[in-house]
Structure formats: C-alpha cells, structure tokens
Amino acid sequence: MMSEGEAYPLEQFRKTYFEECAELLDVLQANLELLAAGAGSEETLHAIFRAVHSIKGGAGAFGFSSLVAFSHVFESLLDALREQKVDATPDVTQLLLRASDALADIVNAARSERALPIDFASDILTGMEEALAGASGATAAASATSGIEPVAAHAAVKGERSYRVVFTPHTEMLQKANEPLLLVRQLRKLGGLTVDVDMSRLPAFEVLEPEAAYLSWTFVLETGAPQSAIHEVFEFVEDDCDLLIEPLQQAAEAVSAAPTANATEAAPAVAAAAEPSATVAPTPSQSIRVDVDKVDRLVNLVGELVITQAMLTEQGSLLPVDQYPAMIQGIEALAQSARELQESVMAIRAQPVKSVFARMPRVVRDLAATLGKEVKIVTSGEMTEIDKTVIEQLNDPLTHMIRNALDHGIESPDDRVAAGKPRQGTIHLSAAQRSGRIVIEVSDDGRGLNREKVLAKARDRGLVAPGVNPSEEEIDNLIFLPAFSTADVVSNISGRGVGMDVVKRNVQALGGRISVQSRFGAGSRFTMSLPLTLAVVDGMVVSVGKETFIVPLTAIIESLRPQPADINPVVGRGDVLALRGEYLPLTYLHSSFAIESAVTDPCQGIVIIVQTEGAGRIGVVVDELLGQQQVVVKSLEANYDAVDGISGATILGNGRVALILDVARLREIGDKPGMRMTKPARETTSEVREDMNHAA
Amino acid sequence: MAKRILAVDDSKTMRDMVSFTLKKAGFEVAEAEDGKAALNVLGGGKFDLIITDLNMPNMDGISLIKNVRSGSSHRAVPILILTTESDGTKKADGKAAGATGWLVKPFSPDKLIELIQRVCP
Amino acid sequence: MQPENQSVGTLGQGNLDGVSVGEHTQQFITFTLGNEEYGIDIMVVREIKGWTDTTMIPNAPAHVRGVINLRGVIVPIFDLRARFGVGLTVPTSMHVVIIVAAGSRTVGLLVDTVSDIISVDPKAIRPVPEMGLPTEDQYLEGLVAIEERMVTLVSLAGLFGMATAKRSFAPDMATTKAA
Description:
- By secondary structure, chain B is an alpha/beta fold.
- Chain B contains five helices and five strands.
- The radius of gyration of chain B is 13 Å and the shape is globular.
- Chain C is mostly beta strands.
- In chain C, 13% of the residues lie in helices and 39% in strands.
- In chain C, β9 (140-146) and β10 form a beta hairpin.
- Classes of the chains: A alpha+beta, B alpha/beta, C mainly beta.
C-alpha cells in the first residue's frame, strides 16, 4: 500500500505523459475535424478544451515551458470559444487546426528534447492572441501568467511582528469541509499564538444547528512571516468568513484596509459546464491501460498453447477413437477453447485505424497549401480495428499514398474547373473489414493514370517486352515496379525520394497487397488489403526434401501438378510453366535454398503459383503440400538474423521449427546463379549480401 | 490508520504523480478518471479527502463536487480542486460548488502534502 | 551486458555452498571438441541439452546448423567445430548443445561433450600464443592449465563479434575461412 524511499520516478511519469499526449492529440485532432466540418456539438468543444488543458497541465509539471506557453494561449482561445466570447468562424477553426498541428510538433520536440526555432508557430500564436483580443475583455488574457502561481512576496521582514486576526466563519465554510481547528494549527506554525474564542452567538442547545457556524476567534500572532503568509492560511476560506488581519502597532491603518477579503474574487456562481449531454463526440470507453509488453507476452503464451494443442491433436489423431473417446473429445474441446482464446487475445491488440487516419488531414492540409491546390479529405470506417503492430506501420505507406494522390492525382483548381470538376478535389480514405482482412482504400477524383504514358515508359525501360500487350489493370499496376521510378511521369512522388514501389514494399512487409484502379480523367483508387494481425498466419505447409516450409495462404494464387509438356526451358531464364496461355518463370525451392534429396522434376512435385514483387506471378516448385494450418509467427531475428526469402518462423505440432517463406522475395533469390548448389553456401551468403547492398 | 484519499483526474500522468506523492507520504490512494467514476468509487468506501481535476469528460469536477456535497456519504469530506487556471474564475466556481481548497498545477510534491495537512484533520 | 563483468561481480561475493571460490576466481564450464578441451564462462551458460534435429536455415554459413524450438523460442545452433574451422560435426544423440546468452540473444553451441566446471584465478590465465592466426580468431580468450590439462578459454563476445558492438552473426561468420 505504501511505498517508501523511492525516488520520484520522473522518467516514468514523463513516459506516461507523452503516451497520454499522443492520445490527447488524436482526440484533439478528431474533434477539431468535427468542428471544422460543422458537425461539432458543445461537447466537441469541451473535449478539445480538455485535451489542450491536460497537455498543458502535464507540461507544467515537467517544466516544458514553451509547451506551457503555447498551450496556454491555445487553451485561452478555446475557453473563449466555450464561453462564446469568440465565434467558431471558419477562420478560427482553421487557426485551431493549425494550432493543433503546431502543438503536436511542440510535444514531439519536447519528447525528443529538440529545440524548436524561437519563432516557431509565432504566426499562429499571434493569430490566436488577436482572436482573443477581439473577444470581450473579461476573457482570460493570453498575457496571463502561464499557470504558475505568482510567488508570494517574501519581503524581508526583519524581526517579529504582532498581528491581530479576527476570524468569523460562515456556515458555508463548514459546509465546504473547512475545519477552523486546522486553520488554528496552521497559524500556530507561523509563530506564537494566543487564542480568544467568542461564543456569544452560540444559541441554546435545543435550537443549535449542528452544522452551522456560531463561533468567532480572535488571534494574536507573533511571527516573522509576512502578512501575506497569514492571508495564505485563510486562502481557501476568505469568501466564507469575516476576516480581519491587522498589524497590532498600526491598528488604525489596518482597520481601513480590513474588508479586503471579499473584494478579490467575484464569484459568478454559474458552473462552467453542467453534466454534458451525450453526443457524437468520442467518449472514452471503459478501458484499462496495459503495457504492450504484457500483451505481447500473453500473445506468445497463447501461441505456445496453440502449438501444444496442435501437437496434442496430431498425437490424438493416432489414437483409436473407440478406446479413448473422452481423450479425443477433450482434445477437440481444447482445440476450440484454444482458438477462441487466441482470437480474444488478438482482439486485445486490435485498435481502430482512427489513430492513423486522424493524421492524414494534416498531411493533406500541409501539402495542399504547398502545391496551391484545394483538397478535402473524407474518411470513413475509422473504427475498423486492426492489430496494433500493423497500425504503427501503416502510417508511412498511407502518408505516401495520400501525398501521391494530392501531388499527381488532384489537378490545380483552374485545371479542375476547365475539366468541368469542382475546384476542390476530394480524397476518400476508407477502411473496412472484408473476409478476415482489412481493406484500406485511398481514392481521388483527380486526373487518373495516363495509361499510354505509363506503358510507353514501361516499354522504354524494358519492363514490358515488345509484342506483349498488358491489360489495363496490368498497366496500372506497373507503377509499383521499382524500375518505374522516374521523375517525369505520372504517379511517383518526385523529389521526395519515394516511389510507389516503396509503398508496395511496406505493404507487403505487413503481409498485405496493394493494387490500383484508375480511369483517365476521373481519378484513381489504391486498394490495400492487410491481415488483421501479424502474429498469426494462415499457411500452407509444404515439404522440400526433409525440410518443411510455410507458404502464407494470402500469397498463393493456385497450386497444381503440371504435365511435362507445360514445362519449357528458356535460355538464360530457367524453366517456364505454360499456364492458360501465359508463361510463368519457375523457381525451384530446393535449388534456391540448397536442399538435398528433393523432388527436382516439377511434374513429380507441386507448383505453387504466387505473386511476387517485381517479377509478377511465378511458380514455386516444392515436393508436396502437407496441408493448411494456422501458425503463430515467431521471430527469427530475435536470436539470429533476417534471412532473405524467409519472413519468420513457426513451431509445428511436432515441436519442430518451420520457416515461413517470403514469397515476394523468392524470385530474386532464385535468379541469382550463385545461389545454386554449385558453390559453397557460406560464400554465397556474403555474395548475396553484397548484391543486396548494391541494390539498396 | 492511514488516511484514504481519492484522486480524480482524466490525465493518467496527473493521477500517477498525485498518487505517487501521496502514497509516499503514507496515504492510501484510490484513483478515478472522471466524476462518474469517482462517485462510483466513493460509493464503495469511506474517504478522508478528495482531490479532483475540474476539466474531465462524462462528469466534470464541479458536478462531482456538487454531487458529493449534496449526497450523504461524503458531504463533510474536504475536497481539493486541481486546476491550471490561475485567473480565479475556476477557483471561484469550484468554491461556489463546495470545494474546500485548491491547488494550482503544476505543483511540487511538498506543496501538495502541505495543502492536505491544511484541510485534512 | 558484458559476461566478464557479470561473473566477477557475482562470484566476487564469496563462497557458494561451501565450494571454495577464491576472492577473484572465475568459473568456467569445460567442453570438448575432439581431443581439445575448451572453457566458457559459466555466467553466460543458460542450460545444457542433448542434440536434437534442427531446421536448416537457407544459405546460412556452414557452422550455422539451423534453428531449434527452445520452449517456444527460435534458437540458432552453431557448430563450434566448424566455427573454429576444423571441420563439421556429425551430430548424434550423444552430442551436446550448450545454450548461452550472447548479449541479448540466446544461441546454442554444438560441442562433443561437456566435461567439468573449473574455477580459475584470472592471474593464471595465459595469453593465447601468437601463432600467426588471423585476427578473426580473437574468440580465444586465453589458456589455462588445470591438472596437466590445457584448457582454451572461449570468449563469447569474440565469437559473436560483440566486442565490436552490435554486429550481426552472418557477416562476422562469413569471414571465417573454410577448413
């Protein structure tokens, strides 16, 4: 219950504070968007105020002075808005949005202990101060001290002085739980005290109200403390008592100054906010804050449980059902509970995509201003939940896609008008859950992809062979190829060092896929499909020689056993598989991974058709398919290193480790002649690394 | 027996800091993240002091104070309000609603303890 | 986390269960590779287990014998014989894997047998003689004579390139010359 001797764990509080700030900034942003969209209610404004208020409160505690200063002015303006001393005009809401962006920057700077330029956001500060100045004078002026109490004037008072204090509590004082006795004790701390109680107002016992105040005290205090220290003792009760404090030697002067107490604070009894009505504004759901590490540990443990359960199931299937009916039933029940437990634990890690979506309006605002375009962003499905790890890694690809849409999709206002479109372009950002995956779409009503230009460029770069006529969809998706990074054509983010290939790589790293659909002149739609979680993968268990691998189901298009006539060697390109008129290059897993005693003839094994990055669809040759299974993804990197072509590891029902294939990378490994078994493995390792470095 | 204090603030940072300071000083501390939660906690036990923030969702500090003062279980318990406002309006509102005293954020641990001693018998 | 410091700090405390441990002695677990006896700081050893089949890691250096499941954690197994450049171990169920903490990582070392626990006065550790070995053989920490036997002390930090801060296994390993 009690802790002792601990140092004040400021670092820990700091950490909590910044975590909280991140949440508050999200709330702030979300509510400001509501306000800007004209959909705000009274509670929206309250929520905005509280967010800034809490950020300021903590900032003071940690001495982040510029954060206090900025949030103080911000808060003052919000307060004025709440009090309807300032109107929420479009200009003001724009200002608030910019202030919120700046506040996020200042918080970030404080967190990373970076200094911001001295004039950082000074235009916004000035704007807010001007808006405040326009409000009626009663508003808490921005020039007020930033939340820090004025230091009591500890004037050097030499020697002791005597004061007479006459103190008559009102009944209200007692009702507010102020205890006269405690005040007496407090006074005694200041110096020598004599007390005289006036009980003349005390009524007869029968009519005495137990909670009413009848007494009056007269103190004589001899103290070295200044008079302000005596006032401080009565700080809380000044309004609820008659109080006279006078230096004894100058009684005459003091009397005239006597009734000072009540003058300081006028108390408009109107409470700032009654019970807020339930509105659309985000209300916190019942929740507890749990360290992510704890959740991860839980996820791992459940993973273990699932593995053990899979092993039991495997062993159980060997038992004769008629002899062990209860055992087999038990194993089935265990499987069911384990699956539900796993789903529930995964759900803990799930969070709404809102936190990422909420950052996008700023991206749009900033870039639109830079590019001189008029763009609004419309989001939907923000409450769609996805694994926390996925969310954290969603920010970059999403930001790039939004920027791309703004930069290359949306036309300038004049061009839009000329094309018969509204001046303001629209970017739609949506999320939805579809068949066990999260689908995120970024669409714009801009100019769309110019397929002729894209195809010409692709042919020019040798990405499309002469004589091949790709479909419209295939042309559109050419923009995701790494080699397609050009500075002068459609849909890459020129000058920012990021092409759509990077976006695709990011998305694939999350086990996702991305595609684009476009209509020239009408706009583009980028669709990302992501797994709900990274911790569990639906996999196809395959064997190659003595080794077992997992191929993520999402990567598999189909699998088949080809006929000899379907396999044709192509000089310099290895074997290709003829599939419905298309020729797919084959990658032999046993060869890529130097595995002995594997099936070498695809017609004796199985070809799995997968989608790779850069090389389109390919066929991966394995020995056989062992079945589908949900597997818990384990890190190989925790104790080893990243391995090219491998995305992770898992533990099978028999307790053995199986590696999970990164099919998107397979072709690149397979293409390296050095990867064949003709060279010692160790030399190829360093060779591949060098190659990768060159590529990077 | 240690004095029991209820700390009410929607900011986890603030709750942590208040809580830590108080526990270190030997108080028993319960926490609530808004006025409604606080009323729930108060319904479940006897407290010697309530320290509350004013700006909170669901039920703010002013409403909490009014509720406490008009209820029966804790109406005579001292209530300290935590506020960053230094302009007096908020203090006045709090006082009018029945707060015993106030503490302006940011505060030092010493100041917090001193104030508690001032209002808590 | 430097294993050396750890051992000095812990063992310097005094006697452990009546086993006489000198003021500054360090304890090592000794193991064999063929006829050679090696020692490894006891403080980095987590457990000792028999050899079990591993799952191969594609295109890994020869001394990386693959990974095993150690209570749900994927742990790589390194063939010390191959790492020392004296051939590949042909593991049987009689072979032993020493699970050690190498920095923040947990790895297994495949050796022939584990033989002893020895206490060594650091002053008794002699430097490895200069025999024109390449610099990557700095994983040998020193030599110590125990009752007519010569034990070579192995430095994990040197073995996994931890001396040069955060380096990954593969590039470090890849520099090893083939036998």
